[in-house]
Automatic annotation (TrEMBL):
Keyword Transcription regulation recorded: yes
Highest rank taxon of the organism: Bacteria
Domain HTH iclR-type span(s) in chain numbering: 9-71
Native species: Cupriavidus numazuensis
Record SUPFAM superfamilies: GAF domain-like (SSF55781), Winged helix' DNA-binding domain (SSF46785)
Database matches in InterPro entries: GAF-like_dom_sf, HTH_MetabolicPath_Reg, Tscrpt_reg_IclR_C, Tscrpt_reg_IclR_N, WH-like_DNA-bd_sf, WH_DNA-bd_sf
Protein name: Transcriptional regulator KdgR
Keyword tags: DNA-binding, Transcription, Transcription regulation
Occurrences of domain IclR-ED (ranges): 72-255
Lineage: Bacteria, Pseudomonadati, Pseudomonadota, Betaproteobacteria, Burkholderiales
Pfam (any one): IclR_C
């Protein structure tokens, strides 16, 4: 049995179906239109609509024949802004990664043409590389930016690039190389390469997906290899840990991230 069917709640599903349908119609729908769109019986829709109106999730027109979403869902959502919710969920996962991989990591989101660092966790050692919280890093020359661009619709990616404004020190990447980079990310599910900003650093970036399978955010670790007697996790081990961390934060359970084949 599919996990989605194991714990069914038909009444809840009906209510959510109505809310999701009304979200597409700002002017509302009549009860008959709702019944037709959802393919359900008059009586079950009537009862559910009455409860949604009573709980103030749906408003009814003065004439009583038209139903539309109220502002209650909007108000509830803004009690816990989306970025705050993501950061709250991500920080414990990032902390576990930092301790296991012995590397720092940061969480980036697209913001007005570049990448905004919304969370940052330092490595557990006495030294390391970390990105300042609130910093804005390049969209077109960082692993974070490449992953965010690669995991979008073509339309959204074009919009992001149109909004992009070059940051200080931005590295120009040839158009064909840029296209190949994005294609590689979509194939592998992550980006790993030497940093274009710092010597001796290998950036690993993994997407955090929204329910539709597009990148909501990106988790990046600037990996630094120790050359003293301390034997920390390898680059491959750190990458696997970061992939798992990003997967655990993704809202799309069907996302599959390919692992590279290990040499025999």
């Amino acid at each position: 049995m599919d996990d989605n069917d194991r714990y069914r709640a038909p009444a809840l599903d009906k209510g959510l179906d109505i809310l999701e349908l009304l979200a597409e119609y700002p002017d509302g729908l009549t009860r008959a239109e709702i019944v037709k769109a959802l393919g359900r019986g008059q009586s079950e829709i009537y009862r559910m609509l009455e409860r949604l109106v009573a709980r103030q999730y749906v408003t009814r027109s003065v004439g009583g024949d038209r139903h539309a979403l109220s502002l209650k869902l909007f108000a509830l959502a803004h009690r816990h802004p989306p970025v705050n919710r993501l950061v709250t969920q991500a920080l414990p996962v990032m902390d576990v990664y930092a301790r296991q991989a012995e590397q720092s990591c940061h969480l980036g989101m697209y913001d007005r043409g570049n990448v905004l660092i919304v969370a940052q966790v330092p490595g557990p050692g006495e030294w390391g590389l970390s990105i300042r919280l609130g910093a804005r890093v390049g969209l077109v020359d960082t692993g974070s930016g490449h992953v965010l661009l690669a995991c979008q619709t073509e339309e959204r990616r074009t919009q992001m690039l149109d909004e992009h404004v070059a940051v200080v020190g931005e590295v120009k990447i040839p158009e064909d190389e840029f296209a190949q980079t994005l294609a590689s990310i979509r194939e592998l599910g992550y980006k790993q390469r030497e940093s274009l900003q710092s010597f001796g650093v290998v950036d690993i970036s993994c997407p955090i997906f929204d329910p539709q399978g597009y990148a909501l955010a990106v988790l990046t670790s600037p990996y630094i290899r120790r050359i003293d007697r301390h034997a920390g996790p390898s680059l491959d081990e750190a990458r696997e840990l970061l992939i798992e961390a990003a997967r655990s934060l993704s809202l799309n359970a069907k996302v599959e991230i390919e692992q590279p084949e290990q040499p025999e």
